[in-house]
Amino acid sequence: MTAIVSRLAAPAPGWTARADVVVAGSGVAGLTAALAARRAGRVLLVTKALMGAGSTRWAQGGIAAALGPGDSPQQHLRDTLEAGGGLCDKAATRLLVAEGPAAVRRLMALGARFDTAEDGALALTREGGHLRPRIAHAGGDATGAEVSRALIAALKVAADADPGIEIIEHALVLDLLPGTSGRGSSRRGTCGRGTGGRLAGLTLHVMGEGQRDGVGAVHARAVVLATGGLGQIYTATTNPGVSTGDGVALALRAGADVTDLEFVQFHPTVLWLGPGRRGRQQLVSEAVRGEGAFLVDEAGTRFMAGRHPLADLAPRDVVVRAIMIQMAATGADHVYLDGRHLGHRTWERRFPTILASCRRHGIDPVREPVPVVPAAHYASGGVRTDMWGRTSVPGLYACGEVACTGVHGANRLASNSLLEGLVFAERIGEDIASGLPPWRDPAPDDRPQGLVSPDVRSELQRVMSGRAGAARDGSGLQSAADDLRRLRRQTPGQPCTEAWEATNLHLVASALVAAAAQREETRGSHWRQDFPYHSDAWLGHLVTRFIDGSLRSRFMAGADSAAAGGRQLDSPPGESQPGDGQSGTVNSSEGENERGHV
Structurally, how many domains does the chain consist of? Predict the structure, then answer.
């Protein structure tokens, strides 16, 4: 196999289901979208594992919103734009911070219990990049688990009382179903042919027993992707094992625009447990530094002072680069987070989960500095949407980490992710309720099928970690692109979950490497060591589309072009385009303010 896979090889669907809206994913975005979409008709939520197994439950720090005295959405906006490296969509970000406080209060009304101070007010803290305490947290450092609990409970209550809501767990989404131009039409579908496409639902594989087992098809009028991130393209990540980029890969194969993939945020402080670490790593929340902990090297010397006005509470991209530069200078493979002065009461009250995890590994943060190192954490880019969550494929929506709404820019501000999931999932529900697309019959899909061998996964992760991780350069990215081409030639064997995941990882990795090679500057979480400074020529977004077996991208100048229109160039600045990334323009509709697709 030489071309990138255009459609996952899979058995023909052995069963079908029908829903007005199908939501893929059960984190904060998917659960909120499912609850909000019920106003539009029958809702089916499908999720890859159990409902609480995604990234949301692992979020430690909290959820950011201007809820405290003296704070305001305008101040939250300022901090978000500052962290975003000049690439935040200002209209989308303004919407996020303006609607955020009310969205958090609605979450509390659903049953989410956040920590409070002695006077009963929300206990708010600071994290990196925030100039004011505005992070609401639960269980000290178990905010995601509480948010997930509350939303799952609300959805289960709704599903028990309402036959119009159905949940299928252990379901891996495969591909979108292309739709005909109208009911009864014999015209071939165009989903996967660009933004002129229409969808008729999706295919999926259910790992279970009973009526809905194996590969099936869900016929739907709208599909909401809330499948989470892509951290499993790296050897070490804070993401759970289900985060294999399935939603981004599915959207690319469907012809949707994907943008800002080069901006993968690495969290500065992940518990270091020795060389050779693999899989999901234990996060040490940024909120620990918000309470006063600080970074030191192996000699006990603080090194963040002078690197940024906020020192240890600088935005994450600044802290990650400082850590890696310090490790290179000292020859160490990790640094330390010193929170001994916080005392046992603060650790036990604010960070019980982190404290217990460290102690399980023989580390006592109360008595000794905690060894930490950066690891892949969050994809700031994703499936390009407008401010209603609509993608460039009519009927396809995206929210949460799988989406790129434009609010994160080149580097996400700490604790804005849960807020984004809430706000934009609610807006998707509102948009769907205002009018669903018509039903469309599934159309013949003549895209060639294929798979990548599941055996490539470990090597793919090593390639991405070594040459497309937190620090990158042109020669390493070219080498990564060459290796990715080689890996897709391996014989895949039979369709199975491992092969589908490997194929998704390969497509997402290929798109990320191509975008990272094209952007010849350092901005936010994209650190090019051969281009160490940002360039005004790159003030804009790389938009990628998968066409006829190859990845093609165009550069859209202007910071606000992620979710809205921007000046299109015939090719991005610079010529570095390894792998399958090809520059060129692709026609698309660029409206945002009206309720049309981006």
Answer: 2
